[in-house]
Amino acid sequence: MHRRRRIAWVESPEGTGALEAGAGRQRSGGSSRSSSREEGKEQGELPLRVREEAEKVRSEDPQPLLRGIFEIQKKSCDVVLSAQRLKWSPIQPERPVGGASIVLQHKEEYVEMKDVFSVKLKRRRFVGQQKGGVLLGITVFVCLKKEGNKLKDSTIHLSNMSEDHCHLWFRYLTEIVNGFPNRPKSLKVFVNPNSHRKEAARLYYEQVAPLFKLADIRTDVIVTEYEGHALALLKECDLKPFHGVVCVGGDGTVSEAANGLLLRAQMDAGRDRKDTLAPARAPLPLGIIPAGDTINIKNATK
């Protein structure tokens, strides 16, 4: 017969944890008492430092909003959500040591909620099935910063087949992500089809557009037809429905978009377009997706 494994996790009081494990080992034999006392003398201030560090971590750690159990990478995890972080640590069974049981503790992992750009419910569906399906959990889409100025999208799968549990977490996660200020919901996109050996449009639709869709960002895409097209449109089109302008191309496309936004700002402010001493602020931020033969702008922004 196999003994049933017990799954347990605890929130240890400050300064315990390793001390409890040490106490268990001390009770297993009297010969270790003298060496334990000597170690205690050498590390007399350790418990105080541990308590101070724990207090510092608690003071910086935001108030949790939700706590629950999900499977992450095939491991049951204790997951905690706050307005700033989503953190998790594997749950391990108790292991007896010297007549006492201790809880195996693993390194806690986390992502900052400001790096999350989308949250979706994950379902298993049959081929051709558009709605419904078996709920598998929640997928969190994260944008992580790599070396230099590069960003890399990644996913975290929180597996749990409870509808109520997942819908509660999904609602909280979505509210936090949507609550961050200055996140665009609608973008005006200009794509230069001649850039990047005439592959700029393919690059946008295959690599960039899916990320915008995941983030629930609406886009109005203009594929430019001639040199100066983006500049002409930005000087005249209604920009009020948009939260930003994105250009896909090389230095020429970027220059057109930047000049168009700045000229538009001068015109809306009733200023001379040639007045460079007191320029008006551009009405919208400009995003650049390098896709040209010359990429000096990209190199300058590193």
Provide a concise account of the structure shown.
It comes from Varanus komodoensis. With 302 residues, the protein is α/β, with parallel strands linked by helices.
General description of the model:
With 302 residues, the chain is an alpha/beta fold. Helices cover 33% and strands 29% of the residues. The protein is built from 9 helices and 13 strands. The strands form 4 sheets. Strands 1-2-3-6 form a 4-stranded antiparallel beta sheet. A hairpin with a 5-residue loop joins strand 8 and strand 9. The longest helix has 18 residues. The chain is elongated.
Task: Give the helix/strand layout.
Blueprint: H1 18-27, H2 33-42, H3 46-60, E1 64-72, E2 75-82, E3 85-90, E4 94-97, E5 100-103, E6 109-112, E7 116-124, E8 134-145, E9 151-159, H4 163-178, E10 186-191, H5 195-198, H6 200-214, E11 218-223, H7 229-236, E12 244-249, H8 251-268, E13 286-290, H9 296-300
Biased composition (Low complexity): 20-34
Region (Disordered): 1-59
GO molecular function, one term: lipid kinase activity
